[in-house]
Design goal:
By secondary structure, chain A is α+β, with helices and mostly antiparallel strands. Chain A is built from four helices and five strands. Chain A has one domain: Heat Shock Protein 90 (2-Layer Sandwich), CATH 3.30.565. Chain B has a domain of 204 residues. Classes of the chains: A alpha+beta (137), B mainly alpha (415).
Chain lengths: 137, 415
């Protein structure tokens, strides 16, 4: 899958998940570099600690190439029914889930190949926090 | 999840071992081996009951080897056993009692791997498509042993055609997935039926009549009757051994899941609950087969093995029940004989539509079951039995119909 389509599908699934919570506000920020991508998504819906833990668990699921290459194709495409963050989790390098100062949700997703280390991403992770100023849970 | 993998690995290993033990002892080792060799060159289209064609021992031996082949493919691709891979292995084991052989599986597996390499992916990304894709093995057996071509031409031609078929499965499987959006568990069944239409039409265009086969064993063989109930019982015991209280809690949590693809119950809730679910589900359907007096032959055991396998990956007692009720309503309304081959198989394999009930409720599940029974009677003739997953084909069509209507309504109805 081309990078553009891949990004569109990931944004589709994540934004579907966010909109399922019926927030008043959603902000999506994307930063691309040659070997990696940073996607930040922010909303203003207050969530419980258990909800945040579940989101973090889904997004940081172990890599499952046998599922990502097949069922992962449904991400951001087949949106009838509950959205599924694990489809995204299998395909990304890492995710951070935190709360914004207003109590909303902040997702920082890093996408890249096997050799991509998101800790070395040139964009300051804080830059993505501009939409809300996140704090890790 | 490592624990999930360990428990599943032990259960899968025990299953394959049981198949080999039954293979050796049912008819004795020499007849089993002779029958096994005969099956490799036998026709394999639906319905070819290997327990009737080669004997009980030969059929179990063939299934054991096909199961081992599936495990070898997983090992070569460095993929561990989980809900979906276990479902694939159990499906391979089951269908190797009525259609899959070592010979007709290998070209498909090779073709799907080549397909991955063609688009710059690793073969392991398509390993599930490869394992389930062996549904189209009968095409290889058809070209090699049914067309009447001299063997020195037929065998290489069948291997090449099988590999080419394997190459086209992944793009179609991914497209088909979008049609029903993961609400039919046998997505490769829909894919294989679609390919089977073309595979059956080509020889037909050349004037070759593809007759429908109905090899349907009727023997009350204790080895056949015992196989799945023993496995179901073992799954329940292994589930309880993981901690009765915890496994029961996980089992109850599984009943609340929709089962929509991809729902790996071991990972979502826990290995004990997944084993308990698979075991109880298979025992329940064994009870149904016994209650209606249908024979425990190759295709029926294949159906039960698939129910068992998908008990780790999408089916539960709760989400299969409405589909079962819909199937029963259609069978009674149209006066179908419950012991007729295609009706029994529809009850077992029709549970592929369980996620519709899990996500949209009892009524939708019942409608799905009802429509499935209506359509599955016709679909087998369309592909001439070239795809072994005829119920997957019918189920995929049914799910596509229902999902399209629900999506259209939800997208367009005024809020």
């Amino acid at each position: 899958m081309k990078r553009r389509e891949f990004i569109v599908h990931l944004i589709g699934e994540v934004s579907s998940f966010i909109l399922q919570g019926e927030p008043d506000k959603m902000v999506i920020s994307l930063h691309q570099e040659p070997d990696g991508i940073h996607l930040a998504v922010v909303d203003d819906r207050v969530r419980s600690d258990a909800e945040i833990r579940n989101i973090e668990h889904s997004l940081n699921a172990a890599r499952r190439p046998e599922l990502a290459g097949y069922y992962g194709e449904m991400a951001g495409h087949d949106l009838l029914g509950a959205s599924r963050l694990n489809l995204v989790g299998w395909q990304i390098k890492g995710a951070e889930v935190s709360r914004t100062a207003e109590g909303g949700l902040m997702l920082n997703l890093w996408i890249g190949g096997e050799g991509f280390e998101y800790g070395k991403f040139s964009l300051d992770a804080g830059a993505g926090h501009g939409a809300g100023g996140g704090k890790s849970v | 999840m490592a624990t999930s993998g360990n428990a599943l690995s032990r259960f899968v290993a025990a299953t394959i071992l049981l198949f080999f033990v039954f293979g050796v002892f049912a008819d004795g080792p020499i007849p089993a081996l002779e029958g096994f060799l005969r099956l490799q060159t036998s026709r394999a289209r639906l319905l070819s009951d290997f327990t009737a064609i080669g004997g009980t021992g030969a059929a179990f031996l063939n299934a054991g080897f096909v199961g081992l082949l599936g495990l070898l493919v997983l090992r070569l691709n460095k993929i561990s056993l989980s809900g979906p891979t276990a479902a694939a292995i159990f499906t391979m084991l089951g269908f190797a009692l009525f259609g899959k052989t070592l010979l007709n599986c290998i070209p498909i597996l090779l073709g799907v791997s080549l397909s991955a390499l063609l688009v710059g992916k690793q073969p392991r990304e398509y390993v599930l498509i490869a394992l389930f894709g062996t549904s189209l093995g009968p095409i290889i057996s058809f070209v090699a042993f049914e067309l009447g071509i001299p063997p020195f031409l037929a065998i290489p031609a069948s291997l090449i055609i099988g590999t080419l078929v394997g190459i086209v499965i992944p793009p179609l499987a991914i497209t088909m997935l979008h049609l029903h959006q993961g609400y039919c568990l046998y997505n490769v069944g829909l894919t294989a039926g679609f390919i089977g239409l073309f595979a059956a039409s080509l020889p037909n265009a050349g004037g070759i009549n593809i007759e429908i086969m109905t090899d349907w064993g009727q023997r009350a063989d204790p080895w056949l009757i015992l196989a799945v109930p023993l496995l179901g019982l073992l799954a329940v015991l292994m589930g309880l051994a993981a901690g009765p209280g915890r496994s029961w809690k996980e089992f109850l949590a599984i009943q609340k899941l929709s089962g929509r693809l991809p729902a790996d119950y071991g990972e979502l809730e826990g290995p004990g609950g997944a084993l308990l679910n698979a075991g109880l589900l298979s025992l329940a359907y064994c009870g149904f087969v016994a209650a209606i007096g249908a024979p425990f032959n190759g295709p029926v055991i294949g159906g039960l093995m698939t129910v068992l396998g998908f008990g780790f990956f999408g089916k539960s007692l709760r989400n299969t029940l409405p589909v079962f009720a819909g199937l029963m309503a259609a069978a009674l309304l149209f006066g179908k004989d419950l012991t007729e081959s295609w009706v029994v198989l529809a009850f077992l394999f029709g549970t592929a539509l369980a996620p519709l009930a899990g996500e949209f409720g009892v009524l939708v599940g019942m409608i799905a079951g009802f429509l499935h029974l209506v359509v599955v009677e016709r679909t087998g003739a369309w592909h001439g039995g070239m795809s072994l997953y005829n119920n997957g084909f019918a189920g995929g069509l049914t799910a596509t119909l229902i999902v399209s209507v629900i999506e259209w309504y939800r997208s367009n109805a005024k809020r």
